[in-house]
Amino acid sequence: MTTILVTGGTGTLGRLVAERLRADGHDVRVLSRHTQPYAVDLREGGDALDAAVAGVETIVHCASSPKGDEQAAANLIGAARGAGVRHLVYISIVGVDRVPFRYYKSKLAVERLVEESGLGWTVLRATQFHDLLVMMLQGLSKLPVLFLPAGVRDQPVEVAEVADRLVELAAGAPAGRVEDMGGPEVRTLESLARTYLKAAGRRRAVVNVPLWGAAYRGFRNGGHLTPQRATGTGTFEEYLARRYGGEQARAGSGRSRA
What we know:
By secondary structure, this protein is of the alpha/beta class. The protein has a domain at 3-128 and 159-177: NAD(P)-binding Rossmann-like Domain (Rossmann fold). Helices cover 38% and strands 17% of the residues. The chain has 9 helices and 10 strands. The chain has helices at residues 12-23, 47-53, 69-83, 102-115, 130-140, 159-170, 189-200, 214-220, 236-244; strands at 3-7, 27-31, 58-61, 87-93, 120-126, 145-149, 153-154, 176-177, 187-188, 205-209. It starts with a strand and ends in a 14-residue tail after the last helix.
C-alpha cells in the first residue's frame, strides 16, 4: 500500500486520519512537533522534514496554527518536491475566500501555495468541527453572561466524517479543489449555545451583541456556510450526547434551515 505522511497527525483531525489510513493498510508516518520519530516544526523545516518526507507518496496536510501556516506550507512543499511526492491533500475551511478573517486569509494563502506547488494536489474545505465550536462556547461561558455575535449562524460538522473524506481523497488521484463539506444543519449561534449550555449543565444568560468590521459582516452574511453541501450527518446534539452523556443533549432545538 501507499506510504502516507500526515502532518498534525496527533491533532483532533490528523489523529483520526492516521488511524483510518492505518486501518486501510497504508504505511503511515505521523508528523508533529513533539512525536518521534518524525518530530518536526514545519515552520523551521530542515533535515528532519526532509527525512520525514523521503519515500512518501502522499501527504495529508492537517497541521495548522494561528501563526506561521504559510511558512510551514512553503517548507513542506519544498521538501515534498525534493522527495518526489505525487499527491498533497490539504484541509481548508469553507469561506476562506469570502470572509476577511485573518486566520482565513492565511488558509487561503496556503491553498494558493498548494495549487501552485507543481505537485498533484487536492483541497477540501470543511465547515467548523463540533469540537471547535464547543471550545469556543466553553471560553465564552466563563463569564456569567454568554455574549454572542448577533445574526451569525454556523454549520458544524463531525470531525470523524471529515477524516473519512480525507482518507478517501488521499487514496485516490489528485483531484484539485473538491466540493466543500458542511454539517447537516445551519443553526443560529444562539440555538447552538443554548443546546451546549443545557448539555454541559451550565446556566448562563445569552445575549446577542452586534459587532462591526468586515470579518463580522462576512460571518453574518453566511460566507462560512455551505448549505448546498450539507453532506455531513452527525448533528451537534449527537456530538454533545457522546461528550457529556445522557439524553438532554439530544433534545436540542432541532433543525433550522438557512
